[in-house]
Amino acid sequence: MLRVGLTGGIGSGKSTAARALASLGAVVVDADAVAREVVESGTPGLQAVRRRFGDEVVRPDGTLDRPALGRLVFADGGALKDLEAITHPAIWERTAELFAQAPEDAVVVHDMPLIVEKDMAGEYHLVLVVGASEETRLRRLVDDRGMTEDDARSRISAQADDDARRAAADVWLDNEGTVTALEVDVLRVWHRRLEPFLDNLRAGARSRLAGPVLSPPDPAWPGQAARLLARVRHAVGDVATTGDHVGSTAVDGLPAKDVVDLQVGVTSMARADEPGFVEAMTRAGFVLVEDVVDDRGRDGRQWPKRLYGSADPGRVTHVHVREVGSAGWELALLFRDWLRAEAGERADYAAMKADLAGRLADTTEYAEAKEPWFDQAWNRARAWAEQTGWSATT
Are the C-beta atoms of residues 125 and 32 closer than 8 Å to each other? Predict the structure, then answer.
């Protein structure tokens, strides 16, 4: 099952995107529909809402007057929290039931307005955000839904801003244009990312780099790493003692293979080999590379690790699992911090990478050809650590 979070601010067009995904075969779990279901006439949820907010939020026919309730809670943070305390337990229970009912080979889309506000992005394989400017959303709410401008502004301001949404978005679907344009974008994402991601999950296959050996620095790399780390933490919990973005994509301004490297620290490799850890990583979309069990250590020994690759075709990722405090775990952090701090070493490394990339088309050959530089750089990095008092734990 591929779990996709779909979100966007009120008036962004999220529901249009959800309908387009459903037409392509996705199973859509509509959080708003679930929220309505748990406060239908005669439900314990509606009775609790009535006790808290009064008879004025219930129509004469016994159904919830949602606009009346909305006017109360969206202008009052305390009232909104009270409403959430009443409805959220029932909503999450029903949502879990709907996810469990979906076929194992389905793309399940959680149409959820508050993914960003509730810090839920780590619960999904991917997060799709439908975006539109505040001015566009305001116009839609007033013209299409009949809201007053004050009511529309109040609802917009009660939600996350676009900076927070962009930080959570694996895919940003711009919806400043027509419905057709948005539907075309959804179709493109479905065929280029969602379907191949699901196919990889079914096959237990990781994505691999298909582009050039070396890419220019991409300012999106750190944000992508942060989202991926959140998914790992959600999957394995406290077994991941540490989680870091490492490798060249973690060094600002450094050209790199377009592969995000993450390091997960565990208290012992035995924890990483527990079936529960492997299963959790697999469910989260990270495939164990079974023939990789160590690194070639700079001290002539083999340094144990486990390697996972993301099944996401849109973001090639390697997750290196190492024991906290081990030589390999420390070196990954040392090289990153050393290169961040030392402009000359960073420039030297970039020049070496560019030279190799110009001569070698194969990523495996490219990685092997860098080893002599790393062997020499290890001593320089250790000397820098001693001079600066650097520590992997601070």
Answer: no
